[in-house]
Every structure is written in structure tokens, then in C-alpha cells.
Amino acid sequence: MCWKTVLLLLLYYNAHATVAPRWNRAMLFPSAHRVKRSSAALLNPVLQKSQDDVDLLFEFLLGELEISDDLKISVRDEELASMRKAMAFDTLCNDVIPKSIPDIRRLSARLSGYPGMLKKEDFERTVLTMVYTAYRAAKSQGHQKDTWAESFVHLYKALKHDLMFSSSQTPSSQRTL
């Protein structure tokens, strides 16, 4: 009877060990798997697939973003906004990254307990969320400004931890962005 209990515990442990990491990874940005747009190509969008994509993302961010009153983010530069990658950027910014303090805090809590290194798309989305919180902190006043700044710091610490973890795991990390 004792060996059956041990065997059952081992099976439970193995099942939990193989299921838990997938669950944790899927839950960082659940909205990426249920994007509101009609195109299947935009399901789980990722911007950075090459160095050119990273450079283009940098151009999007430098080209000034416009955030409307209803929190819709768009690229101001019409030429950049007309690019195919701008559609994925728009989807990420408007449908995937969290925009409310409770959602951003939830993300920060998940990131603080995240086992292992972030996937490239989760890293990218966390950086975009951090950019958004920096914008909101700059535009807010008083207690709201402090709340947004605190969220920014938590995201920064999570990304710093991930970068430290990734550099200790792989000496030549290929993390872009």
C-alpha cells in the first residue's frame, strides 16, 4: 500500500510539473489568445522576429504614440501607421497589453512568481506595458501618478529579474528589444 501511495504522488507531481508551466505561461497575457480582430493572423501577435522588426518597433515608439481619451493607442506618423507591422502593433497595444491598474498589478504579480525565463513575446508585451505605464505616469497627477509610477517600477523589476535570469542561463542570450 505504501508503494502505491508513493507511485500516486510521483504521478501527481509529474502531471503537475508538466501542466503548471504551460498554465503560467498562458496566463501572462490571456487576451493575446482571444484577440478581438477578425483575422486569424492576429491571434497571438508578435512584433519582433528579426532585428529589422525591433528597429521598426523602436521607430513606432519614437514616432510618437497617440493615446485617445478612450485609451486607444495609435502611431501618429501616417507613413509608419500604414505599414503591415503597424497592424500587429495596434493589436498588441489595444487588445493585448493590460491598461488598468488592477490588470497591470495582476501581471506584475504573475511575473514576480514566474518560473524560468520569459518567452520572447511575453517579454515584448511586458516592455510595451511598461511603456504604457510610463506614459500614464507622466500624464497623471497626485495619487494616480504615484500608483502608475509604482506599477512601472514593479514591471521594471520583473524585466530586470528576467534579464538577469536569462543571462545566467544562457551566456549568449539572443533576447532582442
How would you characterize this protein structure?
This protein has 177 residues and is mostly helical. The chain has one domain (2-169). The protein is built from seven helices and two strands, in the order ααββααααα. The protein has helices at 2-27, 51-62, 78-81, 84-96, 101-112, 120-139, 142-169; strands spanning 65-67, 73-75. The protein has a two-stranded antiparallel ribbon with strand order 1-2. A hairpin with a 5-residue loop joins strand 1 and strand 2 (73-75). The longest helix is centred in the C-terminal third of the chain and has 28 residues, at 142-169. It is globular and about 40 Å long. The termini are far apart. The model is unreliable at 1-26 (pLDDT under 50).
State which percent range the strand residues make up.
under 5%
Number of helices: 7
Provide mean pLDDT, rounded.
Answer: 77
Q: What is the share of helical residues?
A: 55-70%
Structural class: mainly alpha
**What's the order of the H and E elements?**
HHEEHHHHH
Biggest beta-sheet profile = 2 strands, antiparallel
Radius of gyration: 19 Å
Total strand count, please? 2
> Looking at the structure, what is the overall shape?
globular
Low-confidence stretches: 1-26
Q: Termini distance?
A: 54 Å
Q: What number of structural domains do the residues give? A: 1
In which order are the strands of the major sheet placed? 1-2
Protein name: Family with sequence similarity 180 member A
Keywords: Signal
Signal peptide: 1-17
Organism: Anolis carolinensis (Green anole)
